[in-house]
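Ticket closed. Logging final result for Putative Late embryogenesis abundant protein, LEA-14.
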Amino acid sequence: MRSTNAPNAPNAPTPTPLPPPPMAERGVTTTKPKRPPRPPSGRTNLASCIVATIFLIFIIIVILIVYFMVFKPQDPRIAVSSVKLPSFSVVNGTVNFTFSQYASIRNPNRAVFSHFDSTLQLIYSGRQVGFMFIPAGEIDAGRTQYMVATFSIQSFPLSSPVINVGPTLANGDGVGFDYGLRIQPTMEIESKLEMAGRVKVLHFFSHRVQSNAGCRVAVAVTDGSVLGFHC
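Final structure:
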């Protein structure tokens, strides 16, 4: 018995694809492109520059006021309190003695004063007869340091002594001495104390400061006593 195959059925029609769902249904949001920001106008730039300039000028003025009122470097203040000649002798018209000077040095700055290259010299009749270097050191801000300088003077010829009568000299306070009717030969010597160093302002700016103190000292030639001094 022959079997016959049924003819092939025609192909089923292909379904038409559906259009994609709208963007909102797919959870996607659309945004409009943003416009670039508008550049600032020329007037705004000019106003900003003026404000910045005024602010800088104000800061500079404040710094200068603080500097000149508080941190301006000042020279040290020297005050000589006493002058003595511990030893004194005159032999054959030449004089030999030891000179001592007591002084106080005040540092008026708000920073440490580092002193160096400081000297004390003694002058007689226009020429130097004694000289010494003062050791370097430091004086704290607003503090006072007391110093005693003592050194020996080599022999030098004594000029014609001056005869003083009456109150012709003054002491360190400017008060006259009254010698009465005492007449004695005297010699006059001059001491020059120089203090030099540096002060650091705000621990950064370094300034050199210097101070000098000169004194005229009257000495009795007979025994070497100090009759008076004026600085």
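Residues 165-182 have pLDDT under 50 and may be disordered. No further action required.
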